[in-house]
Amino acid sequence: MRTPIRLLILLAALPAISSAAEAAHQGDRNAQALAVMKASFKPHGQADMDRLKQDTTQALCSLHAPAMPTGEAASKALAANQASVKFPADGKFLGDWKRGQAIAEEGTGFQYSDDPAKPSGGNCYACHQLDKQQIAYGTIGPSLYNYGKNRGQSEPVLKLAWSMINDMKGYSLCSAMPRFGAKGVLTEQQIKDVMALLFDPASPVNQ
Ligand code: HEC
């Protein structure tokens, strides 16, 4: 018996129908999860309820998690995150590596118990190896040991590192790395200092 043509068309369309249904279902689950979080979180000091508001990138990543969003919406979000990075007004990318090391080791900031008037740390060691002296480092991110030694200090290299530290979500849309400049975690001067930690030949990163 031959399969009726209409059935064939329906079968061909099934994957599209089921992925649209799956996306709608995922959307429901996200809305339910958000409702639970809104009901159970209490604002406390600087940790206010606005922490639950997602920007376009975060909403896209939640919608597709654990998969990576792809397609036009994802490309647009990547491009917008890259385009919003501000380069240093004085054209100098590198500050003081010693201050940068203190920032990389400092994990305070943004918790309800932290003083919002005090500068935050970068907590880079929580995710990255940076030098040979520090033995307790996290491995969520790649090792940054010899970062500057391996790459030199050409303008494109400095600009790329600056952009990634300011907003890794311009390069890896659902990155676990904090968006240090884009979300105001570190000041421009602090980012210059961690840049110096990565690039200064005298920094322990390059020893
Ligand atoms: C919560 C974890 C986390 C923290 C904290 C973190 N990073 Fe990252 N970082 C990552 C991950 C993960 C990547 C890899 C890119 C990706 O997949 O998102 C990365 C990548 C990078 C890269 C790009 C490496 C390359 O391939 O060229 C640089 C530079 C970097 N991080 C610098 C820093 C600095 C400086 C700090 C502290 C101010 C920091 N990171 C803090 C997770 C983190």
From TrEMBL:
PROSITE patterns: CYTC. Keywords: Heme, Iron, Metal-binding, Signal. InterPro entries: Cyt_c-like_dom, Cyt_c-like_dom_sf, Thiosulf_SoxX, Thiosulf_SoxX_II. Residues 95-202 form the Cytochrome c domain. Residues 1-23 form the signal peptide. It comes from the Bacteria. This is Sulfur oxidation c-type cytochrome SoxX. It comes from Dyella ginsengisoli.
